[in-house]
Amino acid sequence: MVLVLQIAEPMTAHVISPFAPQLIRDIGITHGDEALVSFYVGLLHSLFFATEALTIFHWSRLSDYVGRKPVALIGLFGLALSMLCFGLSTTFWGLVISRCLNGALNGNIGVMKSMTAEMTDSTNMARAWGFLPLAWASGTTLGPLIGGELARPADRFPNIFGHSEFLKTYPYFLPCAVPAAVSVLSWIVVFIYLKETTTPQVTISQLLPWKKRKTVPSPALESPSASSLISNKPVPIRGLLIRRVFIATGSYAGIALVDIAFRTVQPVFYATPISLGGLGLDTPTIGTILAVQGIVNGVMQPLAFPKLHDHMGARNLWVFAMATTLPLIALFPALNTLARSSGVIQSVWYLVGVQVALLSCTGFAYGTSFMYITAASPNRASVGATNGFAQVIVSVMRAIGPVAANSAFSITIEKQYLGGNLVYCVMAGMVCMAMGVGFLLPRTMWND
Predict the structure, then answer these.
(1) Cα distances (Å, whole numbers) of residue 153 to 169, 170, 179, 241, 276
(2) 321: burial class by Cβ within 10 Å (0-12, 13-18, 19+)?
(3) Distances in whole angstroms, Cα of residue 88 to Cα of each of 83, 91, 189
(4) Are 351 and 438 in contact (CB under 8 A)?
(5) Which of 4, 27, 40, 346 is deepest in the core (most CB within 10 A)?
């Protein structure tokens, strides 16, 4: 059930990646300036995480009190509603509001990690975190395929959709409607079959302001006590501000910053003309590459992560995974250099394949960070709040990453700083910062 809960989120997040550059061109916000396309694409990605950063802790904290299931259902509803709004948007501000709605109503990512932690222990945690990316990879595979194949259906499939005035007016509604439908189906499945993994402290009705209820202490105002750290009650917010939570959160934030910067630059790089520093690929091709990337990542995680974790240890595996991002980034200028000299030939596709393989290795850092965050929680009842706190910091990083990387990409195209390689130096700097935090991780997990 946790896998079903998770698949909708990456699908809705990544379905826009193949067509986002063309969508920005179509709405006319850049006024024909190709250098601005990557900036606005990065802004759309950042808005989701910026609004998520404002709400995710509260959703995760709420799930410690009312249970995981109610918050999960609200999140799925938010995903469906925001995707339909996105598909119906014909202005840039409509896209902005839709992405903000998507981030604000989505609390599932913290809830999902909390549920996984509550269903596992030290004997099977690595295996569980190895399988969990399978659902994420399924979403990141299907999302780009859907976005790449179903965008502008009236133009691509005139015999089927050519007579639909609705799809001509809203050419990106169909690829957005599919993940929205998946979110609705997931909502139904979760509502019927998902079992609660924690004991609710209160009901949602008790939290409504117009309902008379017994006083429920505000967790934000309580002072942490020694007994609360070993009790079965969630600790107050101040109880989360401890060194091990900061270190574990920092490791997660580091890989998230680098990963989101890469993933937002990647489709823009593929879509940018070769003469400006990219590969000049079309939307369906980009969607196919991203889909294959998701498949490879989904296969690698459950097969390799548990074995590598047992063989290398948690910290060494995290460092190895982060180190693979340096050649991953270096392949961008190498691909463009080769394409400039010989065109998009077979050697270019070999390098794209290497890039896809390296990205799957980078994903090992996520599972390791999740395990550290779970181990860093002050007590079992505060897993949701700990994941929520970590997710707030990560959401801030994921809001900064796309804007920083894609702005650097735009400046690189326009000004040709450092020979057109400024953006890749910026991304390499992000890797070095993340590695500095990662070396603070202990070789063995913390114990309560």
Answers:
(1) 11, 10, 16, 50, 28
(2) buried
(3) 9, 9, 26
(4) no
(5) 40
Work out the pLDDT band at 207, boundaries 50, 70, 90. low
Q: How many CB atoms lie within 10 A of CB 22?
A: 18
Kindly report the CA angle at 213 between 211 and 215, in degrees rounded to 5? Answer: 130
- Secondary structure letter of residue 240 according to DSSP: G
Question: 212: Cβ–Cβ under 8 A, 6 or more apart, which residues?
Answer: none
Over residues 261-308, the pLDDT tens digits come to 998 889 889 988 888 888 988 888 888 888 888 888 878 888 888 889
Q: Quick one: which of 413, 145, 138 has its CA closest to 286?
A: 145
Which of 194, 188, 233 is closest to 69 using CA atoms? Answer: 194
Any idea what DSSP says for residue 230?
Answer: T
Evaluate the CA torsion angle 432, 436, 441, 442 in order and state its sign: positive
Of 130, 188, 146, 184, nearest in space to 1 by CA: 188
Length of the chain: 448
> Which run of H or of E encompasses 399?
helix 383-415
- The helix (H) or strand (E) run that includes residue 423 is helix 422-438
d(CA 4, CA 361): 24
The number of C-alpha atoms within 13 Å of 429 and in the hemisphere containing its C-beta is 10
Cα–Cα nearest to 372, from 447, 260, 320: 447
pLDDT digits (tens, 9 = 90+) for 279-290: 988 888 888 888
Neighbours of 444 (CB within 10 A): 10
Q: Distance between CA atoms of 137 and 349, rounded to whole angstroms? A: 21
Structure tokens at 10: 């990456």
Q: What phi, psi does 313 have (nearest 5°)? A: 90, 160
Q: Give the CA radius of gyration of the chain.
A: 22
Q: What is the pLDDT of residue 386?
A: 85
